[in-house]
Amino acid sequence: MKADTATPAAEQADPACSGEELPGAARRGPVSHLVSRVARLHRVAAGKHLKGLGLYPGQEFVMMHLWDAGAVRQSELIKLLDLDPSTVTKMLQRLEQAGHVRRRPDPDDRRAVLVEPTEASCGLLESVERAWGTLEERTLAGLDAGERRELARLLGRVEANLCADTADCPEAALR
Q1: Which of 58, 69, 128, 139 is the 20 to 30 A CA-CA neighbour of 46?
Q2: Backbone angles phi, psi at 170, to 5 degrees
Q3: What is the residue-averaged pLDDT of the chain?
Q4: Are residues 81 and 37 in contact, defined by beta-carbon separation less than 8 angstroms?
Q5: Which residues 6+ apart lie within 8 Å of 85 measured at CB?
Q6: How far apart, in Å, do the first and last CA atoms of the chain sit?
Q7: Are the C-beta atoms of 53 and 124 separated by less than 8 Å?
Q8: What HEC string does 55-78 produce?
Q9: Taking a C-beta distance cutoff of 8 angstroms, is the pair 18, 12 a contact?
């Protein structure tokens, strides 16, 4: 599909925000298409909030888990995040360089590496909480308390359906 050449590119609407008709291939899955679009937009919005904190999207989930769990094996984080080990290693390197995590050999198994939040990351915790609160309010703007509860309930059911469709559901551990 060609862009409208009469309208400058800067003035053309973002298809994700325009409410345009579904692509032909998505017509049998309009809700799935919408969920994908909403998830992408939510990730972009989260990224904007996190950028000001010096975090990349996804790193906040690592930190949330570490703040709650304390030291964990790097292999556990890889399984939990369901990402390629090299991706998690790069993520941890960046967090370590920023002073948010520390990696050290596991005293019970010298081949394993433990990852733990640093004392310095405690200030980041409050900032991440604020950023997620702001994101929550922007995400749910215009919905009353009952609608928010209903949306959470319905999304929980959708999540359970999708988890049942996978071999395991590591995302559940990140809640």
Answers
A1: 69
A2: -65, -25
A3: 86
A4: no
A5: 78
A6: 40
A7: yes
A8: CCCCHHHHHHHHHHHCCEEHHHHH
A9: no
What pLDDT is recorded for position 11?
A: 38
Res. 26 pLDDT band, cuts 50 70 90: confident
**Which residue is it, tokens 């993520």?**
91
- From the CB of residue 71, how many other CB atoms can be counted at a distance below 10 Å? 14
User: Tokens for 95?
Assistant: 């967090």
Q: Residue 173 burial by CB count (10 A; 0-12/13-18/19+): exposed, middle or buried?
A: middle
Q: Residue with structure tokens 């995590």?
A: 101
Distance CA 164, CA 144 (A): 30
Task: Point out which residues pair with 101 in neighbouring strands.
Answer: 117
* C-alpha angle 42-44-45 in degrees, rounded to nearest 5: 65
Sorting pLDDT into bands at 50, 70 and 90, what band is 9? very low
Q: What is the DSSP string of 27-63?
A: TT-HHHHHHHHHHHHHHHHHHHHHHTTT--TTHHHHH
Cα(103)–Cα(72) distance, rounded to whole angstroms?
A: 10
Residue matched to tokens 């369901």: 82
Q: What is the strand order of the sheet 109-117 is part of?
A: 72-73, 109-117, 101-106
One-letter amino acid for residue 154 of the chain? L
For the chain, the residue count is 175
Which neighbouring-strand residues pair with 60? none
